[in-house]
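Batch manifest line 238
LIGAND: FE2/S2 (inorganic) cluster
JOB: complex structure
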Amino acid sequence: MDRRKLIKSCSLVAVGSMFVPGFFDKVLAGEKEIYKKYNKTLLIKEDGTPITSKDIPDNTVLLFFYPYKSTPCYIINTGEEVKPTKVKLSDGKEYEFKGGIGNKKSIVAYSAICPHQWSYPTKDFSLINYYPSNQKSETTGKSGVIQCCAHISVFDVKNGGQVIEGPAELPLACVELLEEDGKIYATAVVGPNQFEEFFDMYKSDLIEQYGNIEKAKELLDKTVVMEVGKHVKEQIRC
Ligand code: FES
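JOB STATUS: finished
ARTIFACT:
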């Protein structure tokens, strides 16, 4: 697939004021939502049973879709505790990132849609990938990060998806995870999400894949967590 088809330019709307996730179901910051509750979605394995933190070993990344049927996310076991932190936006505003879940509090999840120009893992290839702590990026030398090779933006998985380097100005949106009776649920998206831009940019691709745009925008009650290679033919690293 032509990369130009994947990476198209479009202007971003501004992000805005500070908030505390949990106060409101939907927080508006300027024109951009930076905390939004969606369905409480159960994460399941391919056999239909609930996934547990034990099913996600250290230094593992898996793929699932949330909150919509067509919006990909990564769930990552970093192998180390991920502490709560504040994520700072380029305008100086900030919001809370709750940190990891699981026994070691090492499991986090992020939207896999790059906030720069919306590269995402398609069925054919993915330019935005996780580099575990034992695998360095050739271009940036970084590990333990999500890096997008479309224009080399690097996001800090242990710090709420903040930009470490590259042209991206916004952090990766985080998926809020809830562990309840050993089951894992996705409950909200924290940070400036890119869903409207994604739906606008890839409308024709999504219609081709899902039949119509409404199907691509279906919210999920359950979502299958899978190896990245089950969904993506080629993970392009750099
Ligand atoms: S789309 Fe430009 S760095 Fe990801």
